[in-house]
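Data availability (excerpt). The following record was deposited with the supplementary files.
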Amino acid sequence: MWAKVLSEVFAPWVLVIVLSGAVAWQATHAVLPATVWGLVIALTSSVIPMGVIVWGAQRGRWDGHHVRDREGRLVPFLALIVLSGLGLALLVVLDAPWLLVALDIAMLVCLLVTGAITIWWKVSMHAAVAAGAVAILAVTYTPWLWTLLPVGGAVCWSRVRLQDHTTAQVTVGSVLGVLVGGGVFALVL
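Predicted structure:
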């Protein structure tokens, strides 16, 4: 039961919404701008793509909202890449604070890398997003937030426990989240 709860509460789409708001707040320190910028990222990198995934799952195009079958991940990945790219374009055109542009770039690059790997091997997006979120928050706010990594570890445990991933798949996902997601974010700042 705990594995399922952790897997749902800390699902990538949920973490992206929280991360978008947290980084938007740090970029603006004002409620309205943080809400607007956070929503741009949350909608294009989380809410709308998740809607596509749920829609496809309900129509039997893939095996559920976590898209466990690696072969079924192509359309959701492509939709997410296109929508995230659209969100990034909106941020640039609307002159969003650079911190938010950096966040979207980091998420998009991490998505491209994990998507390329997923063509051959099922890397864990739950692990990548959880670890990447910790890295990005630590860079954005304070290194003390690295202490949240055990939450990412719990997410990894849940994915293995549910038999959705192997230990190797969550390990690689976590490393990619930190190095690619967090690394790109730190580099483009």
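Summary of structural features: The first helix runs from residue 2 to 9.
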